Structure prediction request, 970 residues.
Amino acid sequence: MSPAAGFFLLFVLLAGSGALLSALLPDRRVPTGLAWTASLASGVLLLASGAALESGTGFAFPLLRLPVLGTLGFGIDRLSALFLLVTALVFLPASMYSAGYLARYDGRYSLRLYGVLYHLLLLATALTLAGTDLVTFLLDWRLMSVFCMLLVGFENRKQENVRAGYLLLAMTEAGVLAATLGVLFIGGFGASGLDFAALRAAAPHLSQAAAWTVFLLTFFGFSVKAGLLPGSSWLPKAHPVAPAPVSAVLSGCVLNLGIYGIVRVNLDLLPVRYVGEGLVVLIVGSLTALIGILYATIDPDMKRMLAHSSIENMGLVTVGLGAGMVFLASHLPVLAAMGFVVGFYHMANHSLYKSLLFLGAGGVDLRTGTRDMNRMGGLLRVMPYTGLFFLAGALSIAALPPFNGFVSEWLTLQTLLQSAQFGATGVKVVFALCAAALALTAALAVTCFVKAFGMSFLGMARSRPAEQAKELPRSMLWPMGLLAALCLALGLAPTYVIPALDTIVAPLAHGSITEELVPPFFTVGPSGDARYGAGFMKDFHAIGAQVGRGLLPGRGLVVLHPGGEKNPVVFAMSTAYTAVVLVLLLAGLALAVRWATQGRTVRRGLVWDGGVRHLFPDMTYSATGFSNPVRVVFQAIFRPTTQEDTRESVHGHYRTALTRSQREPFVMDRLFLLPLTRLVRGAARLIARPHHSGRVNLYTATVLVTLLVVLIVNWVRP
Amino acid sequence: MSKWIIQGLRTGVKSTRYPRRPEEAAGVTPGLPAAESRWPSPSGAEGAALSCPVGALETSGTRLTADPRRCIHCLRCASGPNPVPWEGGYEWARRTGPADSPLFDRGFDHSLHIRVVDAGACDACLSEIKQLNKPYYNMHRLGLFLTPTPRHADVLLVAGPMTQAMRMPLLKAYEAMPTPRRVMAVGTCALTGCLFGPSFASAGGVGSVLPVDVEVPGCPPPPLAILHGLLLLSSRVKKSDEARETLGEAAP
Prediction:
């Protein structure tokens, strides 16, 4: 048995026994117990996926062999190992964090139930990713969806939460039903079973129409789970109401399952053949990113803002994948590999920083009792470490170097710009428009997270709980610190991450990107090699690209895409060197300022407040106020609904109170979900009206007639 | 749009040429009583002094001196059988403190940014300050700008008596200004408190709270007087013009 298989079995055992232990422990012991067992289990899962990635072989456990369904069982290949690694990286800190967070539910909700569900969710997520056939995959997917729904509705005395849970379940189930149909469609073309290997073998026989049907069904089906347009309505409702560790896990791991489904079917089982398919993915991805960040920017609810931003990031991941698909269909394997690498890189980054931010938001929620950023402010003074880690997450998600979000967003944009390399004008135009949408998204993301950090952690406290909040305990800070460190590490070391992702992507894209993105500055001397000549090496040696050679392992610290003779460098950057220069610059600036102001008296005055007698917190900038320009500029998309309530005195002559509230319902509710529900209801009413009379005789007759029809049909057909 | 350009060109420059050339248009100044005048008899001088409601006129024997820092241009002394001599002019601003004070040092001899604070004025002075921003006086041509925040201001322009209500905001604005900074008091009220004097609601002149660098008398001072004050502050008034500083030297 390979080490990966051993670790995976151990993980299953640990997660199962963790669930059992949570069921047996008394309620007040559950948080600590859960923190230990779940983080141990995810640690072992980390080892399992790490071993699978390292060895590159993975494993398979065929459990059952059935006549029609084929071989059922579990196994890990490179692709699922990547997703499992990300899952483990998110579950580990989220589980550690749970110990401190869950105390707030003690005595109000059953923590035992939470413990059981949490372990089962971990188990089901991992098993979904490890399923090697459609049946186990779907079975585990269902279980995972149910556990998600139950955990979202964990605070079951709040109707909002329970409804959000049901919405999540209904929408993602509808999506996965469509996806199942799509995959079964492949099976219809002479597959010997429903295991992935058999489906993969059957895929080349699909006709064009069939391939398109499969693509559309699976892409839009799985895209519901990934939170892409048009089926993303459930996400901003479900993610904010879940307990913080669950929110982190939902955004960090469970959304990835949608991406996993898309990738598994459309890149592995039935690789995309037509440019049109890639363009659909690309357009859906960029629209999702733009809509997601627009709503994130204007939302004053911290966790809902993060949920909207998850939609945005899933859109960015999809853009990377979509670009890769277009390149794949145009037979440009290297660029396809670049697109996929970028997509997976961004997915991993999003998992890390979004779970970090959700954990931070949960901590703030725990201490202030509110998720409304209008009622926060000044939290950095009372919760310095939480603020610091939240800032790291915000910098990452706002794509600022040297954090990880920068690397993947920059590479996504660069990948889109590579469309110049091939002919069709229409495709180029789509790429250009998507790149423009992405640029706008990136700018809005900065606005959004300046608001998120500035309005909640800086300024004056706008409510008493925010003023009197206390720092989180260490058990909750450590996991956040771990995630922040990972964000920084993934940002500083793209040259180590890209080759690792390349090994996963290479079989999907039939091309390798390592040589194209990470020049061997550390391994090749000044004479250069066949790809990078001596002149090239010399030029880059002169600007310091070989600093650290001999000290550090790997190929180098510079991400660089070489071009042809005329234009030897298409794009290049190095976050590691940038970080060093940034630190030096900042330190130099601090020293220069100190030197320049030496021997001068510094007068410290109050902040200029317009000369008011007392600056009340209500007078300062709020989250809603800060984002209002965006709200006004994009009014055509938001279509705000305003509600005015006037209260009048007994006689009805005097208005005593006037409240005006403005809401921006999610655009996909308006354009997709509500019309769809209305349509389905209308259709159901039309169908039901003739025979839903309530008479039992009629129903019995219907059953009888149906039975007769079936019997006759079977009798007629041999 | 072309119509406006042609009309503008046809109209030409209507702004005052001050300080390059003295302004001679009618009505640019209400005038002030002559700083010093001789009377045939002490009783005549006393009679003239009594006609002043704000006590701007003082006598010593047959000599009658007028204090421009208190005058409100009511013209009561200029009417009647024995009028006090009255003279025009508008270069009334003067610096306070010792003449050799390092007021006009480097950093104040170019463009100035001005923050206006109303310490309790009746709006007459503010109305005159507003005129500076309009085409006729057009202070921008001299590099003088109003700024909404004291953080960018070089000069704090204060109008009105120092009322208790505005004491703290004024001090806050002064504190918020970067050094070096200058304070200019505009109008009789800001100089002495005048009619509102030190009272339960007012501390008198602005000088009781802040160190005033340049004073501009008048009630309200005409825009040109305020402009003179600003130019004086930025050392852009020629020495010969400063002769006018001591008012009424050429009086009979």
User: Anything to note?
Assistant: The helical segments of chain B are 2-11, 42-50, 124-132, 164-176, 188-192, 223-233, 239-242.
